[in-house]
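Quick one: structure tokens for this chain, please?
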Amino acid sequence: MIEYDTPVPTDTPPSLQFDRADFGAPASSRLFCTTCKQQVMQSYYTVGNRIVCASCHELHVDGGSELNRFLRAFAASLVIAIAGATVWWLIRTFLHFELALISIAIGVGVARAIIWGTYGRTNVFYQVFAVVMTYAGIVFNYVPDILGEVTLSQIDSHMVLVILSIAFRAPFLTGASNIIGILIIGFGLWEAWKLTRSGRAVVAGPFSISHAANV
């Protein structure tokens, strides 16, 4: 039998307190601006269902310059178009599967990029622009295949135009056999047009951080 020189301590749980409730430390209410991604420190506004800080609120109200809005919309939509084309090409090349449904994702992504770039100040011009950028994202996935048929020495300004011309006609080159794909592409273009229709979200505020914590 083992004998201890000192008694083994035993932990006695503290007595339960029934006269008061202990909810622990309150959870911190941390809000982030959906435009600049910075944490909102004091007050915020809502633009539709999005939260924006005071600085970005000014951009949503006055919209900045027309050139700034266009450049933001162009850059953002171009990134989405190239990303969509890359995914489509990878699926078509390595999985040997023509997934036209990606055109819908490109249309939705391009539309959201344009709305972000214009601070929600879209019009008919940006609707047409959204359709063009969506179709560009769709046909760009054929460019690597076309480049594989030409040599580096053949590429000049004229050849670039020829490559783009073939790429933009690619969805229709197989005729009626691709009718389902063409219809899906059309739906993707319609999504881009519909989502960028003219209309400004309701701006409300300012609200305090405590208001968000109590909601």
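The chain has eight helices and five strands.
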